[in-house]
Amino acid sequence: MGAAERPNQRELPIGRQVAQWRVRRRMTQQMLADRLGKSKSWVDKVERGVRTLDRVSVLHDLAGVLRIAPAALLDPARPPTVTVGAVDGVEGVRAALAVGEPSGWRAVGSGAEVAGRLGHAWLTYQHTRYSQLLRILPELLAVVRHAAEAGIIETGTLVRAYRLTGQALVKIGEAELAWLAADRAVTLAAGEPRWCAAGTVPLAQALRSLDRPQLAYAAALAAARQLAAEVPGSPAARALHGALLIEAAFAAADQPDTAVGLDPGTADGLLQQAAASARLVVDGEDPEWTGFGPSAVGLARATAAALAGETDDALERYARLSTRPGWRRLPVEHRAAYLLDVARACLRVGDLLAAGRLVMMAEQTAPAEVRTRPYARDLVTGIIRGGGASSALIRLGTDLGTA
Predict the structure, then answer these.
(1) Cys staple from 313: which of 20, 305, 332, 381, with CB 3.0 to 4.6 Å?
(2) Distances (CA, A) of 213 to 157, 240, 269
(3) How far is CA 262 from CA 206, 212, 255, in A?
(4) What is the CB neighbour count within 10 angstroms for residue 329?
(5) In a 3-state reduction of DSSP, which class is residue 161?
(6) Residue 4 has what pLDDT?
(7) Pick from 126, 164, 128: nearest CA to 331
(8) Confidence of residue 232 (pLDDT cuts 50, 70, 90)
């Protein structure tokens, strides 16, 4: 959310500020209550102004959970300071998206160097090194922007840089800022189908993270249709086309009862189309950093089944897929993210043991995917609160500050 879009927080009571920051961090009132060791009713009363925050210790606890400085609640005019984990680099990325150039950055003189730096950043993402990625993104954006303005690289390379930024921000729970980065990518694409498709991948992810499945579905499907004419001739286009179909399928499966014009069969139809594209893609060949291929479609089917509440089917599909060679060819980020998505679905239907087991498998696959993402911490909190946590998960929860 840009500065122009933010309400004037000077005029907001502290309870309203708490509610706004809670929504920005993608927490329900129950999630916030669980992290604070309070009741949902307590949070509701604070946000409505019925209960005042008159203890400094409670104010500090609340600010810590919301990942802002306590002074941001006491003095809304002061810019909020992010205080926890990998999100320490968010403000630098925010400044870079405002077309600010970090101090000490240097322009590069060749397209090969730009491509090399961007490729290194993508590998950093796929290996779940989110803290490191956030540190390098501000300078990378400045470098790629300068190179595009100088004609050293094509605009599509800058679109990819914004796409990477958007996907990374979704991971760390900054979906609104991810939306801004994705919007930059789509705007730069200027109607070119392949570049527009690249920018729409993080846009759909951000919209789903903000609980807007209808918009995610519409955006992903529109971009996929625009790209469809290029699918037969280009491996990169096929990969992006398939990735967009998967995003649309997830949006349809996650909340089919609230997505206008969708029904539970929509996701399956989209995944059948993705499978057709995947037949022409080899697992591990990833020209657009999508991870798309036959194995990714198989995992997407498992995830869609889980999102639709069919967790037994999802677990059976996962068990089969995880023994195949293509599973190991997927980036660790891809594998761990799928495990967390299915874990969330298991938690929804009350299968706490399966949810806990999947979270621990994700932690073994890519520790940073679990230890960095607020999404994962909320999962761990929910499982522990539900009484279905193993001793290993409780130890993990203690490390994460959720137990």
Answers:
(1) 305
(2) 28, 19, 17
(3) 20, 14, 9
(4) 18
(5) helix
(6) 36
(7) 126
(8) low
The second-level CATH assignment, the architecture, of 3-74 is Orthogonal Bundle (1.10)
Higher pLDDT, 346 or 25: 346
Helix 111-126 vs helix 130-149: crossing angle, to nearest 10: 160
Residues of the chain with CATH 1.10.260.40: 3-74
Beta strands in 4-133 (DSSP E): none
User: For 202, what's the count of Cα atoms within 13 Å in the CB-facing half-sphere?
Assistant: 31
Could you tell me if 180 and 202 are in contact, meaning their C-beta atoms sit under 8 angstroms apart?
A: no
Q: How far is CA 376 from the centre of its chain?
A: 11
Least-confidence region, from 6-20, 40-54, 68-82, 300-314: 68-82
What is the spatial distance between Cα 207 and Cα 219, in angstroms, rounded to a whole number?
9
223, two tokens: 């971009």
> CA 71, CA 89: separation in Å to the nearest integer?
19
From 326, 333, 274, 328, select the one nearest 300 (Cα to Cα).
274
Lookup result for tokens 């998960």: 393
The model's confidence at residue 228, banded by pLDDT at 50, 70 and 90, is confident
